[in-house]
Each structure stands twice: as structure tokens, then as C-alpha cells.
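Usage

Read records sequentially. Each one opens with the input sequence:
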Amino acid sequence: MFDFKSKVGKKLIIKEEFNKNAFYVDNDKLKLGALNGLYEFDYNTLTNLFNDHVTIQNVENIIIKKGEFIVYGLLILLLVAFIFQLFITKLKTKHRKKLEYKGVNKAQIINYIKININSVSIKSICDHFELPLNKLYNLLGEEKPGNLIRKERLKIIMQMKIQNNSVEDISKSTGFSISYIKKLLLNK
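and closes with the structure output:
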């Protein structure tokens, strides 16, 4: 090995197994991967090695030592464990939120609509069951809460029409305006 400071060549041996595919050339530097780390040689050092037929062993040429691989590996392992823990925590939180609304089902919502048909609204359903709007939509599936309310009101209108109730009574019972009920009855 050639020592740049003292300008003296030294005989050293590298007792290392190099990986033939682990190399990188950058300007005048050659980096070689070995079992215990990554070695870096510059052009002058390599020229001296080949000219003098000298083999070298120099721990200072190792860029990343075996111990550092272990440290980096442990850091990566800790990072993966941390990310995994965050993922599990998020899943538990999501599952807990689902359980909070587990007691509420579509039948209860429809029953609430029927009981409060003259004053029910999407907001009143959410307030009564303490549901966020998106959870209400999830519980109802394909049906929209506004369509459910309208459908129940239309059933009452048809029943009350058959019973010959006045438009005012139908309006009070369903929560629809008188003008809207008149339009509905004219179209039927």
C-alpha cells in the first residue's frame, strides 16, 4: 500500500472475500464490496499495488465496517417496527370507532324516521343517534337518508289520501308543505 503522507510503500495483505458484482467506479476511485464492508481505493494506490505486485490489508480503507452494517440494520429494523406499531394503532382506532356505532342499525334509523316523520331530517337522525354524517350513509348502504324520509312520507300521504284526510292534515302528519302535497296528489 502506498502511504501518501510518508510517500512510502508498505506490504499489507487483505484477507477478505470480495463480491465480484459489488463494485463502483467514481472518477479516480474504485469501491469494492466485501463480506466485512466496503473498500475504497484511488487510482494511485491501485497503480502502486499492481506495479509492485503487493497485496494490502488496511482497515482504514473500509468505508462501511461490519459493525456499522449491524447498526444500520438495527436502525432499519427499529424504523420498520415503529411504522408497524403506528399501523396497528391506526387499525385499532378505526376498529374502536366502528364498535362505537355497532348498536345502531338501519332498522332503528327507519323506525326513528317513522316515529318522527313530520319533523325528521338528516341532521336530526345524526343528532339522535350521535352519528357523523358519513357513518349514517355507511349504515344505510345504497339508500340515502333523504330518500328514506321521502319514501316514508309518501307512504303516509297515500294512506291518508285513501282515508280522505284533508291536505292540511296530511301536511301536518308528513312535514311536507301543502303546495308540495297538492302537486304530488295532482300527479297521482
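Summary fields computed downstream for this record:
- Residues 53-61 have pLDDT under 50 and may be disordered.
- The chain has two domains: 2-66, 106-187.
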